[in-house]
Amino acid sequence: MTKRRHRNGSPHVVVVGAGFAGLQAVKALAKVKPPVRVTLLEQHNYHLFQPLLYQLATGLVQPADIAHPVRAIVRRHRRTSVRMATVSGVDLEARQVLTEEGGRFPYDFLVLAAGATTATFGIPGVEEHSFPLKSMPDALRLRAHLLHQFELAENDPSQIGQGALTVVVVGGGPTGVEMAGALHELFKHVLVHDFPDLDVHQARVVLLEAMDHLLAPFHPSSRGHALKILSKRGVEVRLGQALERATPNEVILKDGTVIPTRTLIWGAGVRAHPLADVLGLEQTRGGRIVVGEDLSVPGRPEVFVVGDLAGAPDGKGGLQPQVAQPAIQEARHAAQNIERTLKGEPRTGFVYKDKGIMATIGRNAAVTELPSGARFKGALAWYMWLALHLAYIIGFRSRVAVLVNWIWSYLTYDRHARIIVAVEAPRPAARPAPPPAAPAAAPSPAASGERPVVS
Ligand SMILES: Cc1cc2nc3c(=O)[nH]c(=O)nc-3n(C[C@H](O)[C@H](O)[C@H](O)COP(=O)(O)OP(=O)(O)OC[C@H]3O[C@@H](n4cnc5c(N)ncnc54)[C@H](O)[C@@H]3O)c2cc1C
């Protein structure tokens, strides 16, 4: 490939996205010899630690505990600059990244790491009426909505029968399992004391899974453990049950069962970020961008794709899973291949180093499986889960804050971050039918059950 040099002579690498993959790429690129200049483009001014989003949604941690300013993370890398910008496309011929803000960023190498988004599989009503859990606003919106439903039900207990205190979680993967477990703890250990005049025991958490087991990637004994613990704690686990459609007030299952609920949490699927759809590059199922073994796009050796956005081969005819470790390792490998290219050395193929899998179910309960075949469950697995997630949180302050929250919650059963910050109109599709009478008769958001969201 032709070597293009930036103004100061060093090759210029543009990295898109400051998630697990993008940040790892920046870190690895800072050590590349000969040195490269790096520009990191990120739509937010923070890196989000997605695995703890469910704790944000259930009041265990605060936003700043799981999000870290991107500039603070990369400021020690002298050759890296950051731009808060939303990438809208790439001019592959001119080798320029285009942003919604009107910027054009020329590159010698490009590392695309824009992550994934929620896939609703076209199920009617899910897009409009469900709560996804992919971003900070998603989690805060869900937290405010949940707390608001309890306030509504206390003012008018008849709302319980209309689903105010029923939460349906769709997807029995790690996200659905941890969410269901955490919701149950929030209701039974915290809100039961906050709402003494409300029969909180009527609150339901229903976990729907279309397959006949939870935690698909895990060993059957781990799956069975998760099912046993959730059921014992009061989560209604419905296996082999798929969602047919959703409305603002109920979900309808394929077998015709109707569950009144105002809270449908969608944890059933991911697809590549929509940026993948506008680049004109070949895509896999789920919209991921096809890459070769060296993680570059076929025919575009200067363009690498890593993390959830990449359809990186797993060497067994499938694709790498869309979780944190492959994202981190792919990013490191892409940086190494950039270095090899600059040195005139041949690139190497990416080989994933399996570090095991784990999922938390709730207090003192998790499952962990190591590549050696060793399996752990219960409190020991839970401590392993806590230690690993703490280690991966960026920033000492955040780590301490999360640890303090966890210890406090463990000792007191409290979840202190249960604040409804603001109430705003619901998303248009979820808006109830307009009131027929004069403005004075119009229900307030609190009375109508409209979705509160954090502004
Ligand atoms: C709720 C939840 C729980 C999870 N739990 C676990 C877990 O326990 N263990 C695990 O291994 N994995 C877990 N995952 C998956 C893991 O978080 C992802 O696999 C990982 O974040 C992928 O890293 P990434 O860098 O590819 O994408 P991301 O971390 O999603 O980062 C993508 C970045 O790109 C930015 N971006 C997107 N589009 C643009 C654009 N157009 N312009 C500029 N910037 C853009 C985004 O803002 C984001 O910062 C979880 C995911 C979720 C949602």
Provide structural commentary.
The chain has 455 residues and is an alpha/beta fold. Helix content is 31%, strand content 23%. A six-stranded mixed β-sheet has the order 5-2-1-9-22-21. Strands 11-18-12-13-14 form a five-stranded parallel β-sheet. A hairpin with a 5-residue loop joins strand 25 and strand 26. The N and C termini lie far apart (48 Å). Bound molecules: flavin-adenine dinucleotide. The site of flavin-adenine dinucleotide has 34 residues, from helix 1, strand 2, helix 2, helix 8 and helix 10. The site of flavin-adenine dinucleotide (FAD) has 34 residues, from helix 1, strand 2, helix 2, helix 8 and helix 10.
Enumerate how many helices there are, as a single number: 13
Overall mean pLDDT score?
A: 90
Distance between the termini: 48 Å
Bound molecules: flavin-adenine dinucleotide
The computed structural class is alpha/beta
Reading side by side through the largest sheet, how are the strands ordered? 5-2-1-9-22-21
Which bin fits the share of residues in helices? 25-40%
Radius of gyration: 23 Å
The residue ranges in which pLDDT falls below 50 over 5 or more consecutive positions are: 1-7, 423-455
Task: Name the shape in a single word.
Answer: globular
The biggest beta sheet is recorded as: 6 strands, mixed
Number of strands: 26
Strand proportion: 15-25%
Question: How are the elements arranged and paired?
Answer:
Blueprint: E1 12-16, H1 20-29, E2 37-42, E3 46-48, H2 53-57, H3 63-66, E4 67-69, H4 70-74, E5 80-84, E6 87-91, E7 96-99, E8 104-106, E9 109-112, E10 116-118, H5 126-129, E11 130-132, H6 136-155, H7 158-161, E12 166-170, H8 174-194, E13 204-209, H9 220-233, E14 236-239, E15 243-246, E16 250-253, E17 258-260, E18 263-266, E19 270-272, E20 289-290, E21 296-297, E22 300-305, E23 310-311, H10 324-343, E24 357-362, E25 365-369, E26 375-377, H11 379-392, H12 396-412, H13 445-448
Parallel strand pairs: 1-2, 1-9, 2-5, 9-22, 11-18, 12-13, 12-18, 13-14, 20-23
Antiparallel strand pairs: 3-4, 6-7, 7-8, 10-19, 15-16, 16-17, 21-22, 24-25, 25-26
Helix pairs in contact: 1-10
The structure holds flavin-adenine dinucleotide.
Flavin-adenine dinucleotide (FAD) binds next to helix 1, strand 2, helix 2, helix 8 and helix 10.
